[in-house]
Amino acid sequence: MTALRGWVECAPNFSEGRDAHVLAALRRAIESAGVKLLDRTADPDHHRSVFTFAGSLPAVENAVLRAAETAVEKIDLASHRGVHPRIGALDVVPLIPLGDTPFDACVAGARRIARRLWSQLEIPVYLYGRAARSPERRALEYIRKLGFEKLRLSADSPGRRPDVGGPLPHPTAGAACVGARGFLVAFNVELRTADIAAAKRIAGKIRESSGGLPAVKALGLRLATRGTVQVSMNVVDIDRTPLHRAVEAVCAEAAALGVEVVRGELIGLLPRKAAEQTTAQALRLDALTPNMVIEDRLGLD
Amino acid sequence: MTALRGWVECAPNFSEGRDAHVLAALRRAIESAGVKLLDRTADPDHHRSVFTFAGSLPAVENAVLRAAETAVEKIDLASHRGVHPRIGALDVVPLIPLGDTPFDACVAGARRIARRLWSQLEIPVYLYGRAARSPERRALEYIRKLGFEKLRLSADSPGRRPDVGGPLPHPTAGAACVGARGFLVAFNVELRTADIAAAKRIAGKIRESSGGLPAVKALGLRLATRGTVQVSMNVVDIDRTPLHRAVEAVCAEAAALGVEVVRGELIGLLPRKAAEQTTAQALRLDALTPNMVIEDRLGLD
Fold first, then answer.
1. CA-based nearest distance B171→chain A, Å
2. Which stretches of B140-195 are DSSP H helices?
């Protein structure tokens, strides 16, 4: 991992999942900063997109600022409707250390991004994860569940003031959550039903906050364009709950409700360990390691 | 794969799975020929070992000959008892093309190895797979199920004559099967029972030859040292039956008999595609590709 000294991954979420022109503009803004774009996922029902990229911390910070500028210009939250909770045009900005990069570097980077978002674009920022200024702000949910509309009316109230700038959100671009965290896997499971209650019930059963699986967050969301619903998950620590266990749990709960699973959907990227855990479990192996795979042993791509 | 132009994989099976000195001597013999040793698996109940290595065709041919010389010197089939069928001290020698290497090169290599085994060591050879001289000799089973003891009494009978040398096997080293084939996955599933009938019944249900899964070969074998039994499989084409389907089928048949699965065991190496198929299926993804895995996208080992 020495080749990645000082590198950081960043996976900003934007409140735009439909307009190809806006998505292309966001992509150009990100790539113009000299980072390596690894993935882009957009969903019309969520009306949301995630760009995953990596680079040196200064390049990553610049990429976030350039993309934020584009988001302010192109996205108007006042007319934005989607099924995924959001408070901003540039909604969430996680910095994830790669290789030997220390968490402290990502925390400092998140705070620099926060100051620049406010000073250059008038976007107030909530710091979260390792960059949070108080324990109750470590998790995103405290502020995110409000949504842009409620936040506009209450950002000045106690406990809801932004950490940087504000208190009121930007009139069209809202506010942003910026933080540092470890790698997480974002994964959705689509169900062959239009019954949103089924998705919400399954999400309620599997998420840690209601007594489900450790390190699993889950929401039930409606996918209007597909006429189905999905369980949308974050697995924030695959050592506590491997991804395949979370997927199995959704499938088992769905089966118990008599609901068929359409497919799984990865948002962003998978750490190799998650794939290895999954293969080992399915094949009843104690572990799968790269030295068991012929292409890895021969040093092939 | 251009880095592997002309390279061949070889996975010879030896009738020695217990004596560490003999295994070390076989290893030295193979490595002295300048090939890259990728894996070695030995099983005391099978009393059998598999060395997996890769290299240029001339180096691979030399490695087989040097290991055969060691096997003739150290292994006496007259006193060898194991649960796995075998006809020789060096029992089976498959050549598998890597990268752009054509099958014809492996066929020619197998035939050269056959001539050298006979002329230098007096080991008669049955050619199999793509190197077979007649369609009925493509599959190994026709000769292998006899075992060394029966073969000694009948190798001169019609239909059992070796393709090269013989007809009688070497008095202590027997005969060898040498061939060219595509990649196969050798995989065992251990069952928590001493009832060999259960393993044989499951093997009979899942193998292609008795109406089971396409491209799957299976045997039920006793593991005396562990007090258990296993279903020992070869999946010869993971596009026809993915490995995880074969493992699932064994688990399902075991469950139907009320027998618990102890573990899966890979013999040799796994093609990356088998791991990707398994992960995709368990996560309900259409496919898993390297561009979905962060370490692969960043070009990390």
1. 36
2. 141-144, 147-154
Domain contains B300: no
Q: What is the pLDDT of residue A3?
A: 60
Q: In this predicted structure, what is the pLDDT of residue A297?
A: 83
Q: Residue A155: is it exposed, middle or buried by C-beta count within 10 angstroms (0-12/13-18/19+)? A: buried
**A207 and A171 share a domain?**
no
Q: What chain B residue is nearest to A299 in terms of C-alpha separation?
A: B301
Residue type (1 letter), A70: T
User: Of A29-33, A192-196, A212-216, B42-46, where does mean pLDDT reach its minimum?
Assistant: B42-46
Residue from B105, B25, B32 nearest B63 by CA:
B32
CB contact under 8 Å between B279 and A281, yes or no, is no
The pLDDT confidence band at residue B301, using thresholds 50, 70 and 90, is very low
Q: Pick from B180, B198, B218: which residue ends a domain? A: B180
Q: Please write the tens of the pLDDT for every residue from A54-83.
A: 999 999 999 999 999 999 999 999 888 877
- A15 falls within a domain: yes
Task: Please report the ipTM that was assigned to this predicted complex.
Answer: 0.80
Establish whether A244 is a catalytic residue. Answer: no
Contact B300 A3 (CB under 8 A): yes
Residues in CB range of A52: below 8 A, 6 or more apart? A9, A10, A11, A37, A38, A39, A40, A268, A269
pTM: 0.80
Residues 6+ apart with CB under 8 A from B104: none
Nearest to A285 among B4, B266, B292 (CB): B266
Q: Which of A251, A282, A294 sits opposite B244 (nearest CB)?
A: A282
On whether the CB atoms of residues A40 and A268 are closer than 8 A, the answer is no
Domain boundary among A180, A202, A228: A180
Of all residues in chain B, what percent carry a pLDDT higher than 90? 76
Spatial contact of B94 and B10, defined as CB atoms under 8 Å apart: yes
Catalytic residue among A46, A80, A84, A170: A84
Q: What is the CA radius of gyration of chain B?
A: 19
